[in-house]
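Protein in question passed on here:
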Amino acid sequence: MAAASAVRAAGRRSRRFFDIFVAEVPWTASSKEVKEYFSQFGSVQRCQLPFDRDTGFHKRFCWLKFSSPKDVQNVLQKDTHILEGAKLSLQQQTHRRRRQRKNPSE
């Protein structure tokens, strides 16, 4: 029982990590279009394009998760990425380890 719960928790943590942050996404682009564009460099597992509840438009940035580090390198090797006439700004995300809390009873 404890092992199954640990596996679920690890799965939730791994879903939080994204490989690339993309800024300057054009207003007219959907997450499907962004995912299709970046699929030419490798397998895109997930594209998260957050929306503003007040305006109903997306916030012009997104996060991408790729299947392998090789796919990420393929994306980063290209100098400029243009989607619907707009130049995208990319930044590779670094995966930070959480600090372990010290046991206060020690």
Remarks:
- The chain has a mean pLDDT of 83.
- Helices lie at 2-16, 31-38, 69-77.
